[in-house]
């Protein structure tokens, strides 16, 4: 199948693009390189540099390559930045996304898999979180994900399209060739490894949450498991009726901040520089996915759910790439 991967120069998109190529698909990557890297784009994928909101470019790319399905991983991902600049987030994640959907309609491309986020749930009332739970995002980032999912609800009904929204929890790990190099980095595991390598010490935000060790619990999913789920979701858009299917992607179990630190110490064989801070506003104590629906619907299961695998693979990539992907263009 000929697939357009938007954001395919980023962490998730490039890993997924590689997997699709290995499975025999033809992949075209569309990425503005605002946060991605040319070097991350796998061999065998053509890179088109541009914005998903550039209607003429997306039209030409879809039609010129006879694209059959889109994996829409492109987007801005920083919660704090989204609070400071909601205009930028709505424009990139919602307006840009709608332009892309319009280009898909015009080109007759009716299948899309969307990188959504657990941020659509906000602070959930119960965990593990089921897909049917209320969507109450607590920041503009999560709201833009919810808004685009909402457009998929209505577009798929009105225009005979098929969509799957994959609500990722905390993505982690490396596949060997590709790893996590966000700038700035806000995710716990790469920052823990950065702390060992001379970066700022890890700040533990709160130790009095109602969890066994008092620190927040999150669900981590290996990027390779995530890539496998995308490949399955792509198949689902072929076989399913028109409509929009949201699916949680998590490993289904949670680890506390202290458990992550302990596992990282065992992987790197050194203490992790750390300091205790007050709670951060808006951090729910526990965010863990129910992944039963994804298992049932996709015939998928996470295979690399241990912290050792996620942190170990991230560490090996970091050691092999001390400067990440190097200088951004
Ligand atoms: N990494 C996670 O833990 C996580 C968790 C939940 C959801 N997500 C979602 O998954 C997707 C990928 O995340 P990631 O960690 O790979 O981020 P990333 O920043 O590494 O990748 C995003 C890519 O999109 C590109 N991009 C951004 N805006 C664009 C635009 N308007 N037009 C074209 N390209 C654009 C960037 O250059 C980058 O290469 C995002 O949509 C994110 O919201 C990620």
Structural overview:
The protein is of the alpha/beta class and 329 residues long. It contains 10 helices and 13 strands. It has helices at residues 11-22, 55-64, 79-84, 86-107, 140-159, 188-196, 223-239, 257-268, 292-298, 307-320, and strands spanning 2-6, 26-31, 46-49, 69-72, 111-117, 162-168, 170-172, 202-205, 217-222, 243-249, 254-256, 274-277, 286-287. The protein has a 7-stranded parallel beta sheet with strand order 3-2-1-4-5-6-10, sandwiched between helices. The longest helix is centred in the N-terminal third of the chain and has 22 residues, at 86-107. It is globular, with a radius of gyration of 19 Å. The two termini are 30 Å apart. The model has no long low-confidence stretch (mean pLDDT 96).
- Average pLDDT number: 96
What small molecules does the structure contain? nicotinamide-adenine-dinucleotide
How far from one another are the termini? 30 Å
Q: Report the strand count.
A: 13
Output the strand order for the largest sheet: 3-2-1-4-5-6-10
Strand content: 15-25%
Q: Please describe the biggest sheet, giving its number of strands, its sense, and whether it closes into a barrel.
A: 7 strands, parallel
| Share of residues in helices | 25-40%
Query: What structural category arises from helix and sheet content?
Result: alpha/beta
Strand/helix succession: EHEEHEHHEHEEHEEHEEHEEHH
Number of helices: 10
List low-confidence stretches.
Answer: none
Assembly form of the protein: single chain
Write down the overall geometry. globular
C-alpha Rg, in Å? 19 Å
């Amino acid at each position: 199948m000929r697939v357009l991967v938007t954001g395919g120069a980023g962490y998730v998109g490039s890993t997924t693009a590689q997997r699709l190529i290995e499975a025999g698909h033809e992949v075209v990557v569309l990425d503005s390189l605002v946060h991605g890297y040319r070097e991350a784009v796998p061999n065998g994928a053509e890179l088109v540099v541009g914005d998903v909101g550039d209607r003429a470019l997306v039209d030409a790319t879809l039609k010129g390559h006879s694209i059959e399905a889109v994996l829409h991983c492109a987007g801005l991902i920083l919660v704090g930045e989204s609070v400071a600049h909601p205009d930028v987030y709505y424009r990139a994640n919602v307006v840009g996304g709608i332009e892309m959907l319009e280009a898909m309609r015009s080109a007759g491309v009716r299948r899309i898999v969307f990188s959504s986020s657990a941020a659509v749930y906000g602070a959930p009332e119960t965990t593990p979180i089921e897909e049917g739970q209320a969507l109450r995002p607590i920041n503009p980032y999560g709201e833009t994900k919810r808004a685009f999912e909402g457009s998929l609800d209505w577009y798929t009904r009105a225009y005979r399209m098929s969509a799957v929204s994959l609500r990722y929890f905390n993505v982690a790990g490396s596949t060997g060739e590709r790893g996590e190099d966000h700038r700035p980095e806000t995710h716990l595991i790469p920052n823990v490894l950065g702390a060992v390598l001379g970066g700022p010490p890890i700040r533990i935000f709160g130790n009095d949450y109602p969890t066994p060790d008092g620190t927040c619990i999150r669900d981590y999913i290996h990027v390779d498991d995530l890539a496998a789920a995308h490949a399955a979701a792509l198949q689902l858009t072929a076989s399913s009726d028109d409509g929009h299917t949201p699916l949680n992607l998590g490993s289904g179990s949670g680890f506390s901040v202290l458990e992550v630190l302990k596992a990282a110490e065992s992987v790197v064989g050194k203490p992790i520089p750390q300091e205790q801070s007050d709670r951060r506003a808006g951090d729910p104590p526990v965010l863990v996915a129910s992944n039963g629906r994804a298992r049932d619907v996709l015939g998928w299961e996470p295979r690399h759910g241990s912290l050792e695998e996620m942190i170990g693979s991230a560490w090996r990539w970091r050691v092999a790439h001390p400067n990440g992907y190097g200088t951004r263009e």
